[in-house]
Amino acid sequence: MLEHVERNNKKIGQCGNQIGCRFWDLALREHAAVNKSGNYDESLSSFFRNVDSRYDDPANIPMGSGKGKIKALKARAVLVDMEEGVVSEMMKGPLREVFDFQQLITDVSGCGNNWAVGHKMYGTQYREQLSDVIRRAAEFCDCLQCFFILHSMGGGTGSGVGTFILNLLEEDYPDVYRFVTAVYPSAEDDVVTSPYNSVLAMHQLTEKADCVLPVENQALMDIVNKIGQAIPSARTGKKTFFPTDVKAGSAIHTGDGGLTKTSEEKPFDSMNNIVANLLLNMTSSARFEGSLNVDLNEITMNLVPFPKLHYLVASQSPLYTSADVHLPPRKLDQMFSDAFSRDHQLLRADPKHSLYLACALMVRGNVEISDVRRNIERLKPNLKFIHWNQEGWKTGLCAVPPVGQSYSLLTLANNTCIQHSFTDLRDRFVKLYKRKVSMLLINELCGS
C-alpha cells in the first residue's frame, strides 16, 4: 500500500534555479514552524527525502528506513543549467546540504539566449543523462503524483532545455501530471531574442503541459515596488524600492527560521520569493491537514475545461503582513477582494473585465467554509463567468497558515484576460521579426 505522495521539481536555467532556491528555503522554514518533534512525517515526505548516508542506491534502502527521526533531508529536485554559475553558487551556499549532487546537470558555455540551441542542441546532447537523473529521482518516490517545472521563457536554457524536458516527461511518464511555472519577460527585457524564445517555448507548453502558471517579470516588479513603498526602511524611515529591513512574517522575508539571512539576499530574491510563495500556497493542501484539502491533480480536472486551455492566472493575498506597515489587521473579506484585483496578480491583466471559465480558491489558516461561501456570493455579481459554468468554483481549506500570518488566499483563475498578455508577446515577436538585423543575430547564435 502506498504510504504518501511525492512531487518532483525540475529547475531549469538561471531563473528557474534562483526561484527554486527561494522555494526550498521558504519550504524548510514553513515545515520547521510546524514540525516541532523532529520526526520525518508525511508532510515532509511530499518534497523531501529522509536520507541515511549508509545507503546511496534506492534499491538497497531497507523498507521503512525513511521513517522515524530526521537524518538528512534531501530535496526531491533536479537542477539543470547550461551555465554552471548559479547552480555552483547554490551548492556553496546555505542550502548546499539540501540538494543531491547526483541530481545536477550543468554545462559551461550556455545557450546564448537562443531557444534552438537549448532545445535542439543541448537537449539532444543531454537526453540520456536527463532521463537517468529524472528516473533516479522518480525511483525514490513511493507514489509519484506530478512534476513541477520552473523556468523562464526569455532565456535559451529556460525556454529551450525547459521545453525539451517537458517533452521528455511526456514520453517517459505520460500518466504523470506536468505543472509548469513559466516566467515571461517584460517589454523592456535586456535579452534581444526573448520574444522569439518565448513564442517558440509557448508552442511546446500548449502541446505538452497539463497546467501552466504564467508569471510576468513586470508584474513581479510592480508588486515589489508597492511593497517597497509601503514598508519604510528601519534606518532612514524613508520608503525604499527593495525593502532591506523587513520584519519576520513578511512574504519577502527569509530570515529567522530560514537558512538564508536578509544580508545574504540578492536583488531579485524579493521577486523570486513571490513566485516561491505561489508554489507553497498551491501545494499547502497536499502537505498539511485541512477540512477541505485539494489534491493537486484536482486543479487540472476542475480548472481546465478543454485541452490546451490550461493557462491559469494566479493572484495572492496578503502580499505582505500588516505588521510590516503598522496597519490594522487585514480583514478576511478584504483579503478576498484583494485577490481578485489586478494589483495582486502575477500577470498584468484585468480579470474583472474578462470571462472566467473556472476559479479555484486555496485558503490557508483558521477559515470556515461558510466564510468562503459568503465571499463567493459577495463577489459573484462583479465576476463574469461563462454561461455553461456559472458555479465553476473549486475551494481548498488548509489549516496551516503561512509562517507569520493568520491566513492567506491564493486564487487560480482560468480567465480570458490572459489573451492580452499573449497578444502583447506576439506583437513584440512580429516587431522583432520585421527587423532583419535581429534575424541575423538569431542566425549568428544558431551558428555559434
Short description:
The protein is built from 16 helices and 13 strands. The chain is of the alpha/beta class and 448 residues long. Helix 4 (115-125) packs across helix 6 and helix 7 (194-208) crosses helix 15.
Structure description:
α14 links the parallel β10 (355-365) and β11. The chain has a six-stranded parallel beta sheet with strand order 5-4-1-6-7-8, sandwiched between helices. Strands 9, 10, 11, 12 and 13 form a five-stranded mixed beta sheet that branches. It contains 16 helices and 13 strands. The protein starts with 5 loop residues before the first strand and ends with a helix. α1 packs across α9 (269-282), α6 (156-172) packs parallel to α7 (194-208) and α7 (194-208) packs across α15. It is an alpha/beta fold and 448 residues long. Helix content is 40%, strand content 17%.
Q: Radius of gyration in whole Å, from Cα?
A: 21 Å
The helix content is 25-40%
Envelope shape: globular
Order of helices and strands: EHHEEEHEHHEHEHEHHHHEHHEHEEEHH
Number of strands: 13
The major beta sheet can be summarized as: 6 strands, parallel
Total helical segments: 16
The percentage of residues in β strands lies in 15-25%
Q: State the separation between the terminal residues, measured CA to CA.
A: 52 Å
From the helix content, strand content and strand pairing, which structural class follows? alpha/beta
In terms of quaternary structure, the protein is single chain
Poorly predicted ranges:
233-258, 321-328
Strand ordering within the main sheet = 5-4-1-6-7-8
Q: State mean pLDDT (0 to 100 scale).
A: 82
